[in-house]
Design goal:
Its main location: cytoplasm. Keywords: Activator, Cytoplasm, DNA-binding, Phosphoprotein, Transcription, Transcription regulation, Two-component regulatory system. It is a single chain. This protein is an alpha/beta fold. The chain contains 9 helices and 7 strands. The strands form 2 sheets. The chain has a 5-stranded parallel sheet with strand order 2-1-3-4-5, sandwiched between helices. Strands 6-7 form a two-stranded antiparallel ribbon. The protein is globular and about 55 Å long.
């Protein structure tokens, strides 16, 4: 498996150096950029397209949460590990809903940092590079989703697995209507699950334009 590219967002130079030194000790990861403010981070992340972003919550211009929301809104396909001193339950819950794969509370030791990255690499390996997925592959991937983002009210694990299985079986980008026919569900139900997966950067949305009317959304696994 190729190295996982990493981008670090941290406004404290000392903490930034610590995070970089921690990262260097773990094989399989490569730092490709860093930023000390949200706007610079945003532009560089779009340009460099890292696989993983280590994101601090408190930045001088906008919060890490605001940056994460912006990245998710634009469907930028990255995974995020939050690094922050914030401990309040509301903030942590919001970050989980936005699909952060882990949450490191400052100050943390190397062993916890290492666990976060190794767990991420293991979960990523469950899906990246597979031409098709067995049920156990999907179950493992679902576990990584549930570990990073709580399913919203109205969504459940069983239906999520059916939607993912349908995406794998079709092996190409599909509309919500096409996938609904594949899995035997209502189109509106399937769309809810697809949009959730897109919001946490597990599914990519492509807009295809016809001769008239609105563009059609096509969904595919990242």
């Amino acid at each position: 498996m190729t190295e996982i590219t990493v981008f670090i967002v941290e406004d404290d130079p000392m903490v930034l150096d610590v995070n970089k030194s921690f990262l260097e000790k773990i094989g399989g990861f490569r730092l490709i950029g860093e930023a000390m403010d949200g706007h610079s981070a945003y532009s560089q992340i779009k340009l460099l397209e890292p696989k993983l972003v280590l994101l601090d919550m408190y930045l001088p211009d906008l919060s890490g949460l605001e940056l994460l929301i912006k990245l998710r809104f634009e469907r930028i396909p990255i995974d995020v590990i939050m690094i922050t001193a914030a401990r309040d339950a509301k903030t942590i819950q919001e970050i989980k809903r936005l699909g952060a794969v882990d949450y490191l509370v400052k100050p943390f030791r190397f062993d916890r940092f290492q666990k976060a990255l190794l767990d991420y690499r293991k979960n990523r390996k469950n899906i990246v590079g597979l031409e098709s997925m067995k049920q156990e592959d999907i179950d493992a991937w679902i576990g990584s989703i549930e570990g990073g983002a709580e399913l919203p009210k109205g969504l459940n694990e069983i239906t999520m697995k059916q939607v993912l299985t349908g995406l794998v079986e079709l092996e190409h980008s599909v509309t919500a209507e096409q996938l609904a026919l594949q899995v035997g569900m209502a189109r509106v139900t399937v769309r809810k699950y697809l949009d959730f997966l897109a919001n946490i950067a597990k599914v990519e949305i492509e807009l295809k334009y016809g001769n008239v009317g609105r563009p059609t959304k096509y969904y595919s696994l990242l």
